[in-house]
Write a structure and sequence with these properties.
It is built from eleven helices and nine strands. It is α/β, with parallel strands linked by helices and 303 residues long. It has two domains: 7-175, Rossmann fold, CATH 3.40.50; 179-288, 6-phosphogluconate dehydrogenase C-terminal like domain (6-phosphogluconate dehydrogenase C-terminal fold), CATH 1.10.3660.10. Helix 3 runs parallel beside helix 4. The radius of gyration is 21 Å and the shape is globular. Bound molecules: nicotinamide-adenine-dinucleotide (NAD) and prephenic acid. Its EC number is 1.3.1.12.
């Protein structure tokens, strides 16, 4: 595999940044990796794992050696990180990111770096864990990576970023940022909101103890607890950054939930069965397409 970039910089060495570093080491071993994290502790932990070729808690002149910088920080921290690195960037450096929402991040990056070549990306792959220890090299294999360049984006730069993600095993798709945010609001953001809600509701129940919730959390509820363990800062930022699309999807969800409530109240078994039959078919077509990696796997081991 030819390497799209001789040197890259990864800013934020948590789950996604460290997974990129590991995947680059495996798939593009000649690529030099400059690692950045504002936390000295995270830099030290990343160094102990030998993830990068250099570790920095602050940006310096070495950043200009990177042909691509990938911002792997929470979406609410993208502007701060971009502003801090601005004085050290080369004009040719491609700026990319992995943020879970795209429109707000693009606005933040364009305003912090008005002259930069920007190619936003979102690898639709992750787990409920955070930090450099939780990353793994195979995270992106067979998963989608969505690029959301605007009409100012450089075609050659988009091709290089696509080639980079393909080298890490991802399938690349290009989409408008606003459309991305609408799709992900229903496929990723709303499910997280529902999981956070249901686990909170169960733990607040009077007459049911916390230990009973844990002890009898079989099947469905247990699946929700994995998602509800996802990083609080990352998800706070996702909901605040993709507010409009999430509120739109939440409105539709509430209406559908009310319809189900009514069907249960008035014993409309046929309505319940029709919906459940439709949703079962969706799950089965996901499995048929070989995308059944959404299953919870509590003892998951990664390489
Ligand atoms: N976790 C997932 O499942 C997942 C999947 C796809 C995309 N994403 C996106 O990836 C990004 C990172 O998520 P993660 O799960 O790797 O988070 P993480 O918490 O594991 O890592 C984030 C790292 O960024 C560092 N950081 C924060 N602000 C910084 C700054 N201003 N400068 C430098 N470093 C800074 C933190 O110290 C931390 O080490 C987020 O934008 C998220 O939306 C996450
Ligand atoms: O599998 C999980 O734990 C995830 O939440 C991963 C997941 C998703 O919702 O699919 C979460 C946020 C990302 O932006 C991309 C992937």
């Amino acid at each position: 595999m030819s390497q799209p970039f001789a040197t890259i910089a990864i800013v934020g060495l948590g789950l996604i940044g460290s997974s990129i570093a590991r995947a680059v080491r495996q798939a593009l071993p000649d690529t030099r990796i400059l690692g950045y994290d504002r936390s000295g502790d995270v830099c030290a932990r990343a160094q102990a794992l030998d993830l990068c070729d250099g570790y920095h808690a602050e940006f310096g002149p070495e950043l200009a050696e990177a042909q691509m910088v990938i911002l792997c920080v929470p979406v609410g921290a993208m502007a701060v990180a971009a502003t801090a690195m601005e004085p050290h960037l080369s004009a040719q450096t491609i700026i990319s990111d992995v943020g879970s929402c795209k429109a707000s991040v693009l606005t933040a990056l364009r305003s912090a770096l008005p002259q930069a070549v920007i190619v936003p990306a979102h690898p639709v792959a992750g787990t409920e864990n955070s930090g450099p220890e939780s990353g793994f090299a195979s995270l992106f294999k067979g998963r989608w990576c969505i690029l959301t360049p605007d009409d100012r984006a450089d075609v050659e730069a988009c091709g290089k970023v696509a080639a980079f993600w393909q080298a890490l095993g991802a399938n690349v798709e290009t989409m408008d940022a606003a459309h991305h945010d609408l799709v992900l609001a229903v496929t990723s953001h709303l499910p997280h909101l529902i999981a956070y809600t249901i686990v909170g509701t169960a733990s607040d129940l009077e007459g049911v103890t916390q230990s009973e919730v844990i002890k009898y959390s079989a099947g469905g509820f247990r699946d929700f607890t994995r998602i509800a363990a996802s990083d609080p800062v990352m998800w706070r930022d996702v909901f605040l950054s993709n507010k409009d699309a999430v509120l739109e999807m939440l409105q539709r969800f509430s209406e559908d939930l009310s319809a189900l409530q009514r069907a249960i109240r008035w014993d409309k078994g046929d309505e319940l069965e029709a919906l459940f039959t439709r949703t079962r078919a969706i799950r089965r077509s996901i499995i048929e397409q070989g995308q059944d990696d959404a299953k919870p796997d509590f003892g998951r081991t990664h390489q």
